[in-house]
Amino acid sequence: MKEATLLVFRGDSNGGQTIAYRVPVAPGMVVLDALHHIQGHLAPDLAVRWNCKAGKCGSCSAEVNGRPRLTCKTRMDDLPQDQPITVLPMKSFPRIKDLVTDVSWNYRVNRKIPPFEPRKGVEWKISQLDVDRVQEFRKCIECFLCQDVCHVLREHDKQEQFAGPRFFVRIAGLEMHPLDGRHRAALLKDQLGLGLCNITKCCTEVCPEEIRITDNAIIPLKERVVDEFYDPLTMLFRKVRGQ
Amino acid sequence: MTTNYETREHDVLVIGAGGAGLRASLEALAQGASVGVICKSLLGKAHTVMAEGGIAAAMAHVDSADNWKTHFRDTMRGGKLLNNWRMAQLHAQESPERVRELEQWGALFDRTEKGDILQRAFGGHTFKRLCHVGDRTGLEMIRTLQDRGVQQGIDVYMECTVTRLLTDGGRVTGAFAYWREAGRFIVFKAKAIVIATGGIGKAWRITSNSWEYTGDGMALAYEAGAELMDMEFVQFHPTGMVWPPGVQGILVTEAVRGEGGILRNKAGERFMEKYDPKRMELSTRDVVARSIYTEVKEGRGTEHGGAYLDISHKAAEYVKKKLPSMYHQFKELADVDITKGPMEVGPTCHYMMGGIRVEAETAQSTISGLFAAGEAAAGLHGSNRLGGNSLSDLLVFGRRAGLAAAEYAKRASASSFDNSQIDQAEKELLAPFSNSGTESPYAVQRDLQEVMQNLVGIYRTKEDLEKALVELGKLKVRTAKASVEGSRLFNPGWHLSYDLKAMLIVSEAVTLSALARTESRGAHSRIDYPNVDPVWEKKHNIIVRESGAMKRRESPLEAMPEDLQQILAEDRS
Ligand SMILES: Cc1cc2nc3c(=O)[nH]c(=O)nc-3n(C[C@H](O)[C@H](O)[C@H](O)COP(=O)(O)OP(=O)(O)OC[C@H]3O[C@@H](n4cnc5c(N)ncnc54)[C@H](O)[C@@H]3O)c2cc1C
Ligand code: SF4
Ligand code: SF4
Ligand code: FES
């Protein structure tokens, strides 16, 4: 049987190093299968998160050969066969152990977002077109790979000021819900740091759900903020209303 | 020995954060209870997130003739009349309201022309009944519930595993758990506990289930003295992936057949014509799974030992729109474009019909203070579940469990228990670190999965089941000796050593019950007893712990009231 070498980060918040493991390669095998082989035969205490093994739950995120990916959807035969495969934990989150990182910050950010609230007196009739429009944002599996790759978090550590692409996607899903009656523009501008995004599109590139995060979520949200706060007419209107 | 542990207190403690647990939490909270919910994974990653096809509710948006009575009848017939009829009635009556509620909390479903929730066909359902959004219905459902829960103030304990219920004179009053991250202990005091821990599929080799499905909730309830029921009924979903090897068992949603997918064997024959000419591909899961199995066994299987499932006669755009995640799943994992050619599929262990015995109205188990809902509870589905009836089950009985638990908590005295239980739980959990054996829990799990796959699978015989019991006995000894490496910091090998214990309890319960039921009904097929036996139509198998050992009993079905009997008898087609 063919074999591959995986260089897997082993360590915790105090540090660590990559360790090489030899793993037999079966047809169609994914990196998560290789990690399971390591757990089952070589290192039973290797810490890895996973659930569905089918790209649906967003648990198995890691950096494979330097790229943030779902390990359950990364085929071994798509990676260069002649070199070892490196598997590192997501860099933007504090390390817990091996490939497991502390993603609890995301759950704290999520709590700041006001949930769906139907407009008063709506009739619960929705057209499929409206459903299709927001579908894209609601597919998010919370793998946090976009959070991992975004330089505002990864290099500039702006966790306190910036919610990150995942939550812009979530807000887009709420704001564009055909029956939602809330406004989240002020929140986006003042607390979630939408302005810090400089549209590099790195998040879109890594999203396993192929959500066009930048073009379809972030830019329209930026436009909403502009409309609401910087548009001269709206500003005038505000002044008149004394808001 | 008591090492350090933290203590938390809630009126209602919910174990499990899938659809059932979250719906229970929301309801208990609405009743004014303080609520804590615990889950083994991160919030939002429970099995519910993987549900694809849809949620069954007789809303009659597409087929106006649909109503609760037809849904009730379909559910009872699908379960071969072993269902708790009261649960089947409540489920059919309340599902539409629960779906509407979900919509009011922000869930978005696919729509009809008129702007109502769209419904699709599914096996065993007379009418188009499954509310859905593409093939990611579960994701929509769990996000809606989890976001609402967090906003409403539920305390969530993520990556925390309960290993023992704490009791006080026959009443459940707390739970002992460990944090997966640091391996530290936590003790919960609660006036009422709801178990919503899901199923047991990880005891089989080929399964659609994740690492979480180790039967913990059933094992916890069993150890605390509650009764388990109908444990022989394990659903093998007819269509799991069979190739490549790494993806074996991953689910291919029934929505493929719901949208018109056709099953063929190697020779290109549409074999369902032989097994169920009337319903064909949309027959019930037990029938389709056995049909595929038989085709393969008799040499008409595909290259990798499955059947072909083909949807490529539908327009490519339609397939991509209605089955987007199937399209991607096959493209990325199997190099198959399902809009151009067939998938290869075969049975995979999928769902547990049996579980904790509960009372229909309140979801209370047979011991006080303990409630159960969702896949962990038994009753609604009888001997075979219809697709889509699980997501609705979670909402209907999750809500009922939360309600009853909160009411129970209002009346109940404060939680108290004898601390020696905690000492024991700690000792048991830490044992693998000091065991001298050299075997890893992973090796034991692999062997357990082989035993259940080969001896307690789709078709069963007395010899196989007896052999399985012997093997399970040996595995118990090996589990007790298994040792783990490393520290308590996020150590999956250590975590598995507890999961194994739970898997062995439920595996034994399944095997004992399967051995006793000398007939074939629903998902339970005995080669040595191929027919239904009217005597067994009237009995449940009950598993209970007595003086430290597993005992099996039989319990008569409750007589069905006249009006429901009439509904069942109508339209005997
Ligand atoms: C791939 C797939 C597709 C499916 N599609 C459909 C469908 O289309 N329609 C349908 O009706 N049904 C479907 N089902 C079935 C349905 O999804 C499940 O039966 C249902 O989601 C179970 O929900 P639950 O709330 O009971 O448990 P789950 O959602 O599995 O949640 C269980 C929870 O319990 C927690 N837990 C378990 N043990 C412990 C412990 N010891 N301590 C603490 N927490 C614990 C887990 O962490 C988890 O949070 C599908 C199932 C699968 C696997
Ligand atoms: S586009 Fe914005 S959110 Fe996305 S990675 Fe770049 S800076 Fe971050
Ligand atoms: S938006 Fe995409 S990359 Fe970001 S968390 Fe969601 S699925 Fe993952
Ligand atoms: S394990 Fe669920 S996305 Fe990879």
CATH topology of the largest domain in chain A, by name, is: Fumarate Reductase Iron-sulfur Protein, Chain B, domain 2
How many DSSP helices of chain A? 10
Q: Structural class of the helix and strand makeup of chain B?
A: alpha/beta
| Shape type of chain A | elongated
Structural classification of chain A: alpha+beta
CATH homologous superfamily annotation of the domain at 422-539 in chain B = Fumarate reductase/succinate dehydrogenase flavoprotein-like, C-terminal domain
Corresponding CATH architecture of the domain at 422-539 in chain B? Up-down Bundle
Mean pLDDT of chain A: 94
Oligomer: heterodimer
Q: Your description of this structure?
A:
The complex is a heterodimer of chains A (243) and B (573). Chain A is an alpha+beta fold and 243 residues long. Chain A is built from 10 helices and 7 strands. Chain A folds into 2 domains: 3-101, Beta-grasp domain (Ubiquitin-like (UB roll)), CATH 3.10.20; 104-240, Fumarate Reductase Iron-sulfur Protein, Chain B, domain 2, CATH 1.10.1060.10. Chain A has helices at 31-42, 104-111, 128-138, 145-149, 151-154, 165-175, 185-190, 202-206, 213-230, 232-241; strands spanning 3-12, 15-24, 61-64, 67-70, 85-88, 95-97, 100-101. A 5-stranded mixed β-sheet of chain A has the order 2-1-5-3-4. Chain A has a two-stranded antiparallel ribbon with strand order 6-7. In chain A, helix 6 (165-175) crosses helix 9. With 573 residues, chain B is α/β, with parallel strands linked by helices. Among the domains of chain B are: 238-347, Alpha-Beta Complex (Flavocytochrome C3, Chain A, domain 1); 422-539, Methane Monooxygenase Hydroxylase, Chain G, domain 1, CATH 1.20.58. Chain B is 38% helix and 18% strand. Chain B has helices spanning 19-30, 68-78, 85-104, 137-152, 216-223, 255-258, 272-275, 285-300, 316-322, 324-334, 389-411, 420-434, 441-455, 462-481, 492-516, 562-569, and strands at residues 5-15, 35-38, 55-56, 119-120, 130-131, 155-157, 160-168, 171-179, 185-195, 228-229, 234-241, 262-264, 307-310, 343-352, 355-356, 370-372, 459-460, 525-526, 539-546, 549-556. The longest helix of chain B is centred in the C-terminal third of the chain and has 25 residues, at 492-516. Chain B is globular, with a radius of gyration of 23 Å. Chains A and B meet through helix 1, helix 2 and helix 3 of A and helix 3, helix 4, helix 10, helix 13 and helix 15 of B. The structure holds flavin-adenine dinucleotide, iron/sulfur cluster (2 copies) and FE2/S2 (inorganic) cluster (FES). The site of FE2/S2 (inorganic) cluster (FES) has 12 residues of chain A, from loops.
